Write a sequence for this structure.
């Protein structure tokens, strides 16, 4: 019987506890992955902080989702990765962490990324397959999960953001209809916003403007391709920030504005920064119950669109890996995972990652090494 360590979450304000969990027999179409790096994503911080009500099972929750690892056990029927390339134990892999059902109205409409069944309730260590999240030594990729071999030239720390932050921003910008020559405003220079700057440039954006309040993050955004940055501590009035965006976009406003902040107060301002006919991409506000006041006439008279995106189509992962291979010397991806911690120090990793309300931070992404 093989066991592995997992960090179990018992609710906001309570410390994670490290538990020894039994690895199940691997089903014929499943894969057990030995997690190499598990990053603390902004959405993990929302759960940890308690920004929205959570219903946890009595035995706690093994969460975390932004990760990469090596194949530890292949199910008997798994011979290849999701692109048909031979897969062996020990191979480094990137993989999805959610499971569209394949048998609902949305899936039948060929929109697996929108499947409502893929959003699962928190699962504890007693529930099969036990290794249900990233903050553990193993991750059990269930049947139907997608898995991709990682190119040798990409170090682990470049790959660990792929299955959440990077895939999310690529898919989001595709869904927003970003086109060659467009102007893009990015609200929030955290892990997603910084990578979105680079992805937007790679997709052909002419102008990328990043907004944040922490100078170190804005400096990093410029290193990742942002043409201009706006510090809300320096430009304190909303109307001045909107004017700045107009000036930087030839007077028209941005084609696409993206929310990667996580607090909905920024949304009306972002919509105001759009050109007539522009698209607002909503990704940041994942906390249920968080509300904001909107002026719908802005959408009508400006013919503006708002689209929400959660997760992505699996095909984005190999494209994200290609993007990294193509651009690994163009932008400093090695700066994205700024700190690593052993799994046992997960409480410290979360405390250090906490940024809300802070003036400065040196943490971009903390990664656990289980
Ligand atoms: Zn994430
Ligand atoms: Zn479905």
């Amino acid at each position: 019987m093989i066991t592995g360590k997992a960090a179990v979450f018992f609710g906001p304000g309570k410390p994670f506890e490290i538990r020894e969990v039994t690895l199940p027999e691997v089903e014929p179409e499943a894969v057990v992955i030995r997690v190499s790096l598990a990053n603390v994503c902004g959405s993990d911080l929302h759960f940890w902080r308690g920004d929205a009500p959570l219903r946890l099972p009595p035995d706690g929750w093994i969460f975390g989702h932004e990760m990469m690892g090596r194949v530890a056990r292949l199910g008997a029927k798994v011979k290849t990765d999701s692109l048909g390339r031979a897969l062996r134990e020990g191979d480094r892999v990137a993989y999805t962490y959610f499971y569209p059902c394949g048998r609902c109205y949305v899936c039948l409409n060929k929109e697996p990324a929108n499947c409502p069944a893929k959003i699962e309730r928190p699962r504890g260590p007693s529930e099969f397959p036990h290794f249900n999240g990233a903050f553990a030594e193993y991750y059990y990729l269930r049947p139907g999960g997608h898995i991709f071999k990682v190119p040798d030239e990409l170090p682990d720390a470049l790959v660990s953001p792929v299955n959440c932050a990077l895939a999310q921003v690529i898919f989001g910008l595709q869904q927003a209809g970003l086109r060659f020559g467009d102007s893009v405003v990015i609200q929030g220079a955290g892990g997603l916003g910084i990578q979105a700057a680079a992805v937007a440039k790679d997709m052909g954006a002419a102008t990328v403007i990043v907004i944040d309040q922490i100078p170190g993050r804005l400096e990093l955004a410029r290193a990742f391709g942002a043409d201009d940055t706006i510090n809300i501590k320096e430009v304190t009035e909303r109307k001045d920030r909107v004017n700045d965006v107009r000036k930087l976009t030839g007077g028209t406003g941005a084609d696409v504005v993206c929310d990667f902040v996580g607090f909905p107060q920024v949304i009306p301002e972002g919509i105001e920064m759009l050109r007539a006919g522009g698209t607002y991409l909503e990704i940041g506000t994942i906390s249920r119950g968080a509300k904001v006041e909107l002026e719908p006439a802005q959408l009508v008279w400006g013919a503006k669109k708002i689209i929400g995106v959660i997760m992505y189509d699996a095909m984005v992962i190999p494209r994200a890996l290609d993007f990294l291979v193509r651009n690994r010397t163009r932008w400093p991806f090695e700066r994205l995972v700024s700190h690593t911690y052993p799994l046992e120090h997960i409480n410290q990793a979360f405390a250090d990652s906490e940024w809300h309300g802070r003036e400065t931070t040196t943490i971009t992404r903390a990664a656990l090494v289980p």
